[in-house]
């Protein structure tokens, strides 16, 4: 008896009566059903706003990053439950790894980025701040704050877990409760994952809700503080983009749509080159991983005409070795399509493509998947087509068979290859296989205008390359035109996309108070206590020390040169230095840096544990023999990462603004130093 799936709405699991049958892609048996009960989307939205949002904003960026890390670990510990259910989608173990462990890995990645790149609190200062007046009393900057809304994520069938988690991770960091709606055909795997999330107790109530089935009037209940993201077909994206309520309230809408991605074999590569085999391997892999059901898969393989036959033969030989069938059978390398409707759709589109392209491999003739009961499954043979005149053929650039299908197409010259790539009308990703850096430098800037990501493959990168079809958390995922025009992932960029950017104007003191970050010109806090003697909790932004002075002598320059080995003529050659723009010998810039540290460092053991970085260094003016320098050290920014050292001592990060001036009050060096500072508790 099939299991009725449930939605997770308002903190409750909803659904008892079966509705739509969801069949196993392996044998066609009904394994799950969507639920028939209607969802009260008013309740879902109200719960997200009144429970989820306040709970998320009780946490700050750092605390939310810690929750993501804990959740990633929990899902990893329970992954085998998900692998067992994923088998019904037709996925092999390797396919499921991309979805299940790729999803958990994305949580880990965002946990790390959030911990390392985001501040304490719930405001990001997108500086630097800058003066807007001549007297220093009026300044401006930008801040990012939580939108105060909810995120609705509508996902495709091909990645039931990763598809939701790669959207959820940055939304959660940005302080937005999420309502996820997976495609029905594989929603049973998403439901299993959300049950694990709920059982873990790691997320605050209201952070994540799940919709099984239709979105009903959900989009009608959103407002301008909310966001909608969509992954799926370009046609559905276009329909949702003009939803009346989305348009009325200018609700941000991010679409990641299917695209006719290409791989180009550059003309410098011959059949004897390692890169030739890399190209063939990459096309074959993208045809067969997830049975070709990836929005990033290679649909168009663009090849120099003189190598077309050689590529076709090698691809045929590689595809012929791919065993298709029940993934539980040893030796099977490719499973089924995710559903029987998908199987029918791919067959229909291949038939359209074959009207203008010849069959090289596949087509279903004498195709027998391996395994018992697979005759009722949603299998489709890897199918390679060939188009001899792609510039004169529209269908190969317009029709996408979302399965293990790719079309070879010939080109004559690089300009023609670029024309063919552009016929995709906007793609998520393109691959260029070349040995020649000059060819890459010619092709990439042109292709970049219509591609969200470009992957250059040669024997050097192949050692570590994750491949054409693998979006990675630190890099943007999305593309222009047909690909939807959206952006996902891209590291902390994705978090910022989900926040409200606001320009801020005011006095330096007011801007420092709002941003939690000192800016020059703001009021200083000067006491008899050296700032380095303060524990993390005690230290206030703006606490400052003006050091004593030091006059730089020739002996300093000679000693530093001997110590560092830096005998650059500006420091030691009196005649050459006089002919330079400075007109005199000057001190090493790094001597000025070291001398400044000697002025402001408190040498005794104390709360400052270590100096682990230096940012924004600028040497503004030269320091000559006889000049006198002085430094001002000011606590600029504090980040509480809620971490402890090996001895159990809590610590935070403090960024210090350092300004080094000469006897005329002119700034000669400016920078930030980063230190680990112990907590008192």
Automatic annotation (TrEMBL):
SUPFAM superfamilies given in the database record: ALDH-like (SSF53720), Thioesterase/thiol ester dehydrase-isomerase (SSF54637)
Gene3D superfamilies to which the protein is assigned, alphabetical: Aldehyde Dehydrogenase, Chain A, domain 1, Aldehyde Dehydrogenase, Chain A, domain 2, Hotdog Thioesterase
MF (Gene Ontology): oxidoreductase activity, acting on the aldehyde or oxo group of donors, NAD or NADP as acceptor
Pfam families documented for this protein: Aldedh, MaoC_dehydratas
MaoC-like domain location: 541-646
Name of this chain's protein: Phenylacetic acid degradation bifunctional protein PaaZ
Ranges of residues in domain Aldehyde dehydrogenase: 35-445
Domain of life: Bacteria
Keyword field contains Oxidoreductase: yes
CDD domains given in the database record: ALDH_MaoC-N, MaoC_C
The keyword Translocase is annotated on this UniProt entry: no
Region (Disordered): 462-486
UniProt keyword annotations, A-Z: Oxidoreductase
């Amino acid at each position: 008896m099939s299991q009725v799936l449930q939605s997770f709405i308002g903190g409750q699991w909803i659904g008892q009566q079966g509705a739509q049958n969801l069949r196993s892609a392996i044998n066609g048996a009904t394994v799950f059903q969507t639920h028939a009960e209607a969802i009260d989307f008013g309740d879902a939205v109200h719960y997200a706003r009144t429970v989820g949002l306040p709970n998320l904003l009780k946490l700050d960026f750092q605390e939310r990053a810690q929750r993501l890390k804990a959740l990633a670990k929990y899902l990893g510990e329970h992954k085998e439950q998900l692998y067992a259910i994923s088998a019904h989608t037709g996925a092999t173990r390797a396919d499921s790894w991309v979805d299940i462990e790729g999803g958990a890995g994305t949580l880990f990645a965002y946990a790390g980025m959030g911990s390392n790149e985001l501040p304490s609190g719930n405001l990001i200062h997108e500086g630097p701040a800058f003066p807007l007046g001549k007297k220093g009393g009026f300044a401006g900057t930008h801040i990012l704050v939580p939108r105060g809304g909810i995120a609705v994520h509508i996902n495709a069938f091909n990645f039931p877990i990763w598809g939701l988690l790669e959207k959820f991770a940055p939304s959660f960091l940005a302080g937005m409760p999420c309502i996820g709606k997976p495609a029905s055909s594989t929603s049973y795997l998403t439901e299993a994952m959300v049950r694990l999330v709920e059982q873990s107790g790691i997320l605050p109530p209201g952070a994540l809700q799940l919709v099984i089935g239709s979105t009903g009037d959900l989009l009608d209940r959103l407002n301008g503080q909310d966001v909608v993201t969509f992954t799926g077909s370009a046609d559905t994206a276009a329909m949702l983009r003009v939803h009346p309520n989305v348009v009325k309230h200018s609700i941000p809408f991010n679409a990641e749509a299917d695209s006719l991605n290409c791989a180009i074999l550059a003309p410098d590569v011959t059949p004897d080159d390692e890169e030739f085999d890399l190209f063939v391997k990459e096309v074959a892999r993208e045809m067969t991983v997830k049975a070709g059901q990836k929005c990033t898969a290679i649909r168009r393989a663009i090849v120099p005409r003189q190598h077309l036959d050689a590529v076709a033969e090698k691809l045929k030989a590689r595809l012929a070795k791919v065993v298709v069938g029940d993934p539980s059978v040893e030796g099977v390398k490719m499973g089924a399509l995710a559903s029987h409707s998908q199987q029918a759709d791919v067959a229909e589109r291949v038939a359209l493509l074959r009207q203008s392209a010849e069959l090289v491999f596949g087509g279903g003739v004498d195709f027998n998947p391996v395994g018992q009961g697979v005759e009722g499954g949603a299998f489709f043979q890897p199918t390679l087509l060939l188009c001899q005149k792609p510039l004169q053929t529209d269908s190969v650039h317009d029709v996408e068979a979302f399965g293990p299908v790719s079309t070879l197409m010939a080109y004559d010259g690089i300009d023609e290859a670029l024309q063919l790539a552009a016929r995709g009308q906007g793609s998520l990703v393109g691959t260029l296989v070349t040995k020649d850096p000059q060819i890459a430098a010619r092709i990439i800037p042109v292709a970049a205008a219509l591609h969200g990501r470009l992957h250059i493959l040669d024997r050097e990168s192949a050692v570590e390359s994750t491949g054409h079809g693998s979006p990675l958390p630190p890099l943007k995922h999305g593309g222009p035109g047909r690909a939807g025009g959206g952006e996902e992932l891209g590291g902390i960029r994705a978090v910022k996309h989900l926040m409200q950017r606001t320009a801020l104007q005011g006095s330096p003191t007011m801007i420092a108070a709002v941003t939690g970050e000192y800016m020059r010109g703001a009021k200083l806090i000067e006491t008899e206590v050296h700032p380095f003697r303060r524990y993390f909790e005690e230290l206030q932004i703006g606490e400052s020390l003006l050091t004593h002075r030091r006059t730089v002598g020739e002996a300093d320059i000679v000693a530093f040169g001997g110590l560092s080995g830096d005998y650059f003529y500006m420091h030691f050659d009196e005649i050459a230095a006089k002919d330079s723009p400075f007109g005199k010998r000057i001190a090493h810039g790094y001597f000025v840096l070291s001398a400044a540290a000697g002025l402001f460092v408190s040498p005794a053991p104390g709360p400052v544990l270590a100096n682990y970085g230096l940012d924004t260094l600028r040497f503004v003016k030269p320091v000559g023999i006889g000049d006198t320098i002085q430094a001002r050290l000011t606590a600029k920014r504090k980040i509480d990462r809620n971490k402890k050292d090996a001895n159990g001592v809590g610590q935070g990060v403090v960024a210090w603004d350092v300004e080094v001036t000469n006897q005329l009050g002119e700034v000669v060096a400016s920078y930030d130093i980063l230190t680990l500072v112990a907590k008192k508790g």
